[in-house]
């Protein structure tokens, strides 16, 4: 049965031979609801794998507690925890057939042959693995091997399913197919999933909840849309999607509206997340590339420095008030396009602007 996962003040400090300490994970708190797909996302070294390994029980906690449902699992060894991990390296047994690999954990649990068949057959159906049942892992493609690894984890019916960058050894196209498959099966079976990746598009497409980590701490937790549209820091805005920043100071605020004075202009920005600001505070306006309207009708003058036709979009770089802005125009066919050197004006689609603290 799917279980919730709660991390309470979880900390991991590694100490090397020279007694130098690394705070890999630094007092994090997180709640993952049962049946939810949560992704830990962040740059290399931010602590995502260490967090996942602590949930799995492969790594002891330096401080804090981890709960599966109401049960504190801190003292429970990995092989006794109600969770299974799918690894980047597949970790299949090379001398066993696909079927035997998938059954391995159930045989260890001493389930009868009928019980094993009852669990394995539907999973092999879902994952389209029957044709390969008698093959050895080295006779399979990378994608097929990862499917076997996933099936082997699923038949255990774990309370929590953990994924450590499971798709990073696959080519780009197969990664997309497999991630769709993982999401479909996770939803169908209602499993609680915790997934580690540094690939933002993977995180966006898979997750109910994204946890953005930076230097051992959690920067922000939210749905993919919240993380993209209402980032709470420059780090998150820059890490998820592409962001331009216009620096300025809060001039005034009322209810859900902030007026920000930048070097060249004054912009009103809706602010609908938990951040609060004071007048005079240095801030940055996050401007997504698709929020920039380029034409000749506005008063804010800019100069095109780069223009690239990409088929479905036109990419621009424009020089505006000493800042280089990256802009994209969707569906450029039929719209006027501009070339490097053209004088244009820029406007910003107000709905897509967002304010974060300057640092
Ligand atoms: N066994 C260890 N001993 C010492 N330091 C470690 C150990 N494992 C991880 N670290 C350090 O802890 C920090 C977090 O590492 P972690 O592997 O959790 O990051 P990550 O976000 O998963 O990175 P990546 O995407 O590169 O795998 C890093 O600074 C790393 O060097």
From TrEMBL:
Residues 5-240 form the ABC transporter domain. It comes from the Bacteria. GO terms for cellular component: ATP-binding cassette (ABC) transporter complex, substrate-binding subunit-containing. GO terms for molecular function: ABC-type transporter activity; ATP binding; ATP hydrolysis activity. SMART domains: AAA (SM00382). The keyword Transmembrane does not apply. It comes from Alkalicoccobacillus porphyridii. This is ABC transporter ATP-binding protein. It holds the Pfam family TOBE_2. InterPro entries: AAA+_ATPase (IPR003593), ABC_transporter-like_ATP-bd (IPR003439), ABC_transporter-like_CS (IPR017871), ABC_transpr_MalK/UgpC-like (IPR047641), Mo/tungstate-bd_C_term_dom (IPR008995), NA-bd_OB-fold (IPR012340), P-loop_NTPase (IPR027417), Transp-assoc_OB_typ2 (IPR013611). Signal peptide: none annotated. Keywords: ATP-binding, Cell membrane, Membrane, Nucleotide-binding, Translocase, Transport.
């Amino acid at each position: 049965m799917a279980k919730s996962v709660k991390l309470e003040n979880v900390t991991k400090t590694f100490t090397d031979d020279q007694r130098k300490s690394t705070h890999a994970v630094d007092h994090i708190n997180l709640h993952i609801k049962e049946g939810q797909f949560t992704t830990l996302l962040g740059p290399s070294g931010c602590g995502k794998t260490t967090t996942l390994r602590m949930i799995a029980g492969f790594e002891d906690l330096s401080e804090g507690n981890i709960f599966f449902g109401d049960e504190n699992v801190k003292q429970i060894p990995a092989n006794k925890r109600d969770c299974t991990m799918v690894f980047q390296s597949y970790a299949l047994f090379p001398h066993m057939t696909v079927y035997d690999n998938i059954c391995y954990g159930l045989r260890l649990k001493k389930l009868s042959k009928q019980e094993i068949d009852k669990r394995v057959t539907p999973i092999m159906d879902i994952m389209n693995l029957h044709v390969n049942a008698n093959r050895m892992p080295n006779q399979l493609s990378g994608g097929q091997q990862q499917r076997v690894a996933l099936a082997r984890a699923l038949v255990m019916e774990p309370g929590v399913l953990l994924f450590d960058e499971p798709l990073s050894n696959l080519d780009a196209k197969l990664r997309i197919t497999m991630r769709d498959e993982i999401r479909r099966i996770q939803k169908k079976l209602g499993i609680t999933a915790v997934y580690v990746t540094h690939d933002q598009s993977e995180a966006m497409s898979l997750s109910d909840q994204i946890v953005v980590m930076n230097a051992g701490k959690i920067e922000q937790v939210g749905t993919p849309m919240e993380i993209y549209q209402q980032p709470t820091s420059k780090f998150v805005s820059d890490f998820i999607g592409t962001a331009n920043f216009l620096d300025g100071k809060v001039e005034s605020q009322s209810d859900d509206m902030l007026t920000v004075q930048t070097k060249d202009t004054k912009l009103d920005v809706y602010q609908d997340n938990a951040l609060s600001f004071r007048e005079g505070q240095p801030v940055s306006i996050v401007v997504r590339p698709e929020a920039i309207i380029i034409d000749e009708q506005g008063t804010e003058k800019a100069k095109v420095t780069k223009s690239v036709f990409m088929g479905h979009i036109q990419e621009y770089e424009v020089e505006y008030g000493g800042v280089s802005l990256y802009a994209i125009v969707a569906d450029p066919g039929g719209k006027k396009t501009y070339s490097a050197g053209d004088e244009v004006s820029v406007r910003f689609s107000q709905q897509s602007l967002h304010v974060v603290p300057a640092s």
